[in-house]
């Protein structure tokens, strides 16, 4: 299908594909097996100028938006849905700065992210708070020119490897979600340490760690926007970042589909390729239709956001994440089926895709939360229209 | 250090087809790439530039579509691109090509080092690099696998030999041809690709380089290709089977029979 991408967007796709094929493919198994952080790939992406696609040229980026980020993430995830997270999760940690940061904050932090020198992370989730932001226990207490952070964040993507963290902490617990604020914390700040590294089902090349704050003192200039804005910042960050998760899911599904079609033409049973059996053909047809529908929804969402980054895009953003991640789970499951016994074996790249796909239904808000958001938006729209 | 890298656009396959009438390579319908050995030359040029400063100019002789190869070199980080193109160059052999490229480099004028790939994967002659050096009357070292030292007036290189390597110091300006052991070529960058899209390629024709008409193209090419053919595939050979003792006995018997030992 023709999405009428610009010449620059085509280049991003082409270059991302090249890096995925030449740099990621030979090492994807090793990273999945050893759970290492893919620094060599970060370097390759940095050298290719792909780390700052969505950051303005003023701060050393490419000057694109969510669509450019999605195109890159999709191509990378066709080959590996875990390694690509070094870029995608950095975007999640960068959006709060892009959307709400002051000029000084942007100047200080964005150039290193755009050049790929540093990666970023975003931390909301705690043991007892994820989707329910009001339950956040981490606190930030103001002391003169500083804020002092205490508490523990868990399941933080890029945790330990990122240099720049955006942390949501409570500045006023009595106000619930409206008492949350967002702070920038740099690695190596005294009182900031890392806890357990998680051993995961999928996306194993991506690090997921606990962040521990113990009387961690940061300058008051590191507050993003104003006190009490933490919840709004989080919501708007997710509006911008969820298409990225959707693009990750899309890439995983599209890669699975491509390989499944190829394999079905090579695999001979009963004297002919299994692609000649209608049972297999219909599976492939369903997979392809779902993948294309996900792609169309994601690109349209990304364009909508890029066209007016200030407007709330919760509904379409949630829809693309919900739809694409469900598609990824279905398509990778079917792709394993097409591969049969081989699909179940680690020697082939299919079972990994199924493991990697699952997280896209869970993080940045479970798909149940996405449905809540979509429904809420529908009801609000309806109420407003009468 | 100002560097000129000479590259060639070649068919993207090692199974080239030959036109039986003209005895030349059939290029139609075959995807074109930058000669893989030239990618190492480009990479080395860029690395030297990054280390000691200067510029990298990439040069090729070919039809207008060879621009694609030059643009790829620009996307990797080369500064300037020069295409030497003229119908009068058609049918050039390695001598005429070396002459034409040497004239073009004289026209570019400002150079300290010329880098070529060790050979092109289509013709496989490995003659053009040394030919350029001869024509320009500069020293030449082929099969360079490492550059040890770069100073203002000289470079020191390791030349690959069948066993080991030779360390050679040569004054600049000079020419080297490189082997694939020298580096790992980079991938393009997005900024490079954007630059390549907009780059103005300098096009030189026979008049621009003040070429003598009897030294270019078919006229300037003394090479006569009398016949060209695909070599016959090697036959399967004979397998010697059995345990080690039997195999040794059988093999030595055969070697004696054929008077090898």
Question: What features would you describe in this structure?
Answer:
The complex is a heterodimer of chains A (386) and B (261). Chain A has 386 residues and is an alpha+beta fold. Chain A has three domains: 7-114, Butyryl-Coa Dehydrogenase, subunit A, domain 1 (Orthogonal Bundle), CATH 1.10.540.10; 120-229, Butyryl-CoA Dehydrogenase, subunit A, domain 2, CATH 2.40.110; 231-385, Butyryl-CoA Dehydrogenase, subunit A, domain 3 (Up-down Bundle), CATH 1.20.140.10. Helices cover 53% and strands 15% of the residues of chain A. Chain A is built from twelve helices and ten strands. In chain A, strands 1-4-5-8 form a four-stranded mixed beta sheet. In chain A, a hairpin with a 2-residue loop joins β9 (268-269) and β10 (272-273). In chain A, α5 runs antiparallel to α7 (230-266) and α9 runs antiparallel to α12. Chain B is of the alpha/beta class and 261 residues long. Chain B has a single domain (3-215), classed as HUPs (Rossmann fold, 3-Layer(aba) Sandwich). Helix content of chain B is 28%, strand content 24%. Chain B has six helices and 13 strands. Chain B has a nine-stranded mixed beta sheet, with helices on both faces. A two-stranded antiparallel sheet of chain B has the order 2-5. In chain B, strands 3-4 form a two-stranded antiparallel ribbon. In chain B, α2 (67-76) packs antiparallel against α5 (190-198). The model of chain B has no long low-confidence stretch (mean pLDDT 91). The interface between A and B is medium-sized, with 16 and 9 residues.
Summary tags:
heterodimer, A: 386 residues, alpha+beta, Butyryl-Coa Dehydrogenase, subunit A, domain 1, Butyryl-CoA Dehydrogenase, subunit A, domain 2, Butyryl-CoA Dehydrogenase, subunit A, domain 3, 3 domains, four-stranded mixed beta sheet, four-stranded antiparallel beta sheet, 12 helices, globular, B: 261 residues, alpha/beta, Rossmann fold, nine-stranded mixed beta sheet, two-stranded antiparallel ribbon
């Amino acid at each position: 299908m023709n999405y009428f991408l610009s010449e620059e967007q085509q280049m991003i796709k082409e270059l991302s594909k090249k890096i995925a094929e030449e740099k990621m493919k030979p090492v994807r198994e090793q990273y999945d097996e050893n759970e290492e952080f893919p620094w060599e790939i970060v370097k390759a992406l940095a050298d290719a100028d792909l780390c700052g696609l969505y950051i303005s040229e003023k701060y050393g980026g490419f000057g694109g938006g969510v669509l450019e980020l999605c195109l890159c993430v999709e191509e990378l995830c066709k080959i590996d849905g875990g390694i690509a997270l070094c870029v995608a999760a950095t975007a999640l940690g960068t959006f709060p700065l892009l959307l709400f940061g002051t000029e000084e904050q942007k100047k200080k932090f964005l150039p290193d992210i755009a050049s790929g020198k540093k990666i970023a992370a975003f931390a909301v989730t705690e043991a007892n708070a994820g989707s329910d932001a009001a339950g956040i226990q981490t606190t930030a207490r103001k002391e003169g020119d500083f804020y002092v952070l205490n508490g523990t964040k868990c399941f933080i993507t890029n945790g330990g490897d990122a240099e720049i963290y955006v942390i949501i902490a409570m500045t006023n617990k009595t106000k619930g979600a409206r008492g949350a604020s967002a702070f920038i914390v740099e690695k190596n700040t005294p009182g900031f340490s890392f806890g357990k590294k998680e051993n995961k089902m999928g996306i194993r090349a991506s690090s997921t760690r606990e962040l521990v704050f113990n009387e961690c003192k940061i300058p008051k200039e590191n507050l993003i926007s104003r006190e009490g804005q933490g919840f709004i910042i989080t919501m708007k960050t997710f509006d911008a970042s969820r298409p990225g998760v959707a693009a990750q899911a899309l890439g995983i599904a599209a890669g699975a589909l491509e390989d499944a079609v190829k394999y079905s033409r090579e695999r001979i049973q009963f004297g002919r390729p299994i692609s000649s059996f209608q049972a297999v053909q219909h599976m492939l047809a369903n997979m392809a239709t779902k993948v294309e529908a996900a792609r169309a929804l994601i690109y349209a969402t990304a364009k909508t956001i890029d066209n007016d980054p200030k407007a709330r895009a919760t509904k379409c953003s949630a829809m693309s994440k919900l739809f694409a991640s469900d598609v990824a789970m279905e398509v990778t499951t079917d792709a394993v089926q097409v591969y049969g016994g081989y699909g179940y074996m680690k020697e082939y790249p299919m079972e990994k895709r199924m493991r990697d796909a699952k997280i896209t239904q869970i993080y940045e808000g479970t798909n149940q939360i996405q449905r809540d958001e979509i429904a809420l938006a529908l009801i609000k729209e309806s109420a407003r229209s009468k | 250090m100002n560097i000129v890298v000479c590259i060639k656009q070649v068919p993207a396959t090692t199974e080239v087809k030959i036109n039986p009438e003209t005895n030349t390579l059939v290029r139609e319908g075959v995807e074109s790439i930058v000669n893989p050995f030239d990618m190492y030359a480009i990479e080395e040029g860029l690395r030297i530039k990054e280390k000691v400063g200067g510029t990298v100019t990439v040069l090729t002789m070919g039809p207008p579509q060879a621009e694609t190869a030059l643009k790829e070199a620009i996307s990797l980080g080369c500064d300037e691109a020069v295409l030497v193109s003229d119908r009068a160059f058609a049918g050039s052999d390695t001598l005429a090509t070396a002459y034409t490229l040497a004239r073009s480099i004289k026209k570019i004028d400002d150079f300290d080092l010329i880098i070529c790939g060790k050979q092109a994967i289509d013709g496989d002659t490995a003659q053009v690099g040394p030919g350029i050096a001869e024509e320009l009357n500069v020293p030449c070292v082929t099969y360079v696998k490492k550059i040890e030292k770069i100073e203002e007036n000289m470079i020191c290189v390791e030349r690959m030999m069948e066993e080991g390597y030779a360390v050679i110091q040569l004054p600049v300006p000079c020419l080297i041809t490189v082997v694939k052991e020298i580096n790992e070529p980079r991938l393009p960058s997005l900024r490079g690709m954007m630059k390549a899209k907009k780059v103005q390629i300098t096009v030189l024709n026979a008049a621009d380089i003040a070429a003598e008409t009897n030294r270019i193209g078919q006229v300037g090419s003394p090479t006569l290709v009398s016949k060209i053919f695909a070599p016959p595939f090697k036959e399967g050979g004979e397998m010697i089977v059995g345990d080690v003792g039997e195999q040794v006995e059988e093999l030595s018997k055969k070697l004696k029979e054929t008077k090898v030992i």
